[in-house]
Amino acid sequence: MPYLLCRMGASLCFSKFYQEFREHSNYVSIYILDILANLLAAVQLSHQDDTSLGSADMAKYVIAKYSRTVSDPAQGEVPMLRHSRMRICERPRICSC
Amino acid sequence: MLGFARQLRTPIKAAANITPRAGDWYCQTLDSFVFWLFRQLQRPETEYRRMCMNLYEEYAPLVSKAPIASGLSVQSWLPGALHGIFTSLPAAGAAAGGARASKSKGVVAMDVDQDGDEDGDKQWPDHVTDWSDALVFTFEGADLKQYGALAASPIEYVCLV
Predict the structure, then answer these.
(1) How far apart are the first and last CA of chain A?
(2) Partners of residue B24 in chain A, C-beta under 8 Å
(3) Nearest residue on chain B to A28, alpha-carbon basis
């Protein structure tokens, strides 16, 4: 389980490079679901944190940013609706799945 | 000594080719993500559940409108999700006191009593009512012809009373 400061630091990092990330539709189609799932996990883990620390608020703020990349009409076709194997072909050689 | 080093080399090579995590989302599509969000609506953590609800409301229309290239569409996952959730409802209803969920002949009736405290009954837990809201949203927002697969599921009708 990531510590509180790790989660807040990760949320801050994702918030900072969002503007760069959204410009690359290829990366968006590959990584956005994983990013959203992990940010949701950060919200879930922050359930036991003190509210005044703001870990849940930070994660929710970043989720609100990243969720726009999926449903934004300016992005055109929703790439995550395509078959998973088509998206895997576009992916850099990191994952063996 | 060299044999020992050779034994070490194999797991290092295997670790270099390993996938980042089990159950990652690199190989998934948006419809499976929506299905996962739908299942997360049963979670007891309030903020987490609300975020899942927001994302579900945002992405479910995208999935229901677009042609799905993968085999997993809403009409394929919804019956299974309904079956799994309604089998857990009696326990939740018992914990809630007066709330009831009955199932007979494929019809499930949920007694969602919002002002139940006045007549001594207790309300459903928040996660159950949130989930029922998502269910209503799912049925309202999409063409019901898409849910023809529901007829083949154990649950044919859902009544929110």
Answers:
(1) 25
(2) 34, 95, 97
(3) B26
